[in-house]
Amino acid sequence: MHLQASDLAAFRGEELIFEGVSFSLTSGEALVLTGKNGSGKSTLLRVLAGLLRQETGTITVTNANGDTDIRLPEISHYLGHRNAMKSELTVDENLSFWRRYLGDTHLGDSGGGTGMSIEDAADAVGLSGITHLPFGYLSAGQQRRFAFAKLLVSHRPVWILDEPTAALDASADQLFAGLIEAHRGAGGIVIAATHQPLGLSDARELRMAGFSGVRAGVWG
């Protein structure tokens, strides 16, 4: 699988946030977005996830068969600042909904796969045995772990992550780094915005400079 973003630009309201952003990733690679607040990291992730429309530029996904009629949002998980889980429902009910709603993605190459069971996903994030509890009953760190488990119960080859380790302690950081590396090892692609190291091996860096520096270097 190959992901190509070319000459992307995006507005937020009437303000141009970034332009001229390009990158290329293949199966197993990771891209980490860095830069100060307001530089466009979250906006770029939302464009990639299909939540915002780019002003200019193209995003193309090509599978091993050479097919290019693949929409990136349809093969991606997006984990934003909010957990996208309902507080009054149990963890099991939340994850069951996302498992049914998202389903698994099969591209006919290394982009295919099968999601975990809910209990296996809970075990993978270190919280087995409590999926019967209401999501709102959990601590902020536990909630973030289960939000990450949402990525595990249905297979999507591309993970788009916005500050994925927010509200987590150091041990959870290491656990999530291992899950991300396992996803990459299975041929997945990861694009993440962060203010702190994620512990990913050989990850590329894209330093977002915002509109004040959009022409001054794309790759950090």
The assigned CATH architecture is 3-Layer(aba) Sandwich
| Structural domain tally | 1
Q: Which CATH top level class fits?
A: Alpha Beta
Total count of strands: 8
Radius of gyration: 17 Å
State the distance separating the first and last CA atoms. Answer: 24 Å
Q: In sequence order, what are the helices and strands, one letter per element?
A: EEEHEEHHHEHEE
Report the uncertain regions: 212-220
The overall pLDDT, averaged over residues, is 88
Major sheet characteristics: 5 strands, parallel
User: What proportion of the residues form beta strands (DSSP E)?
Assistant: 15-25%
Helix share of residues? 25-40%
Please work out how many helical segments DSSP would assign.
5
CATH topology: Rossmann fold
Shape: globular
Overall description:
The protein has one domain (2-213): 3-Layer(aba) Sandwich (Rossmann fold), CATH 3.40.50. Helix content is 26%, strand content 24%. It has 5 helices and 8 strands, in the order βββαββαααβαββ. The strands form 2 sheets. The protein has a 5-stranded parallel sheet with strand order 5-6-7-3-8, sandwiched between helices. It has a 3-stranded antiparallel sheet with strand order 2-1-4, covered by helices on one side. Strand 6 (158-162), helix 5 (170-185) and strand 7 form a beta-alpha-beta unit. The longest helix has 16 residues, at 170-185. The two termini are 24 Å apart.
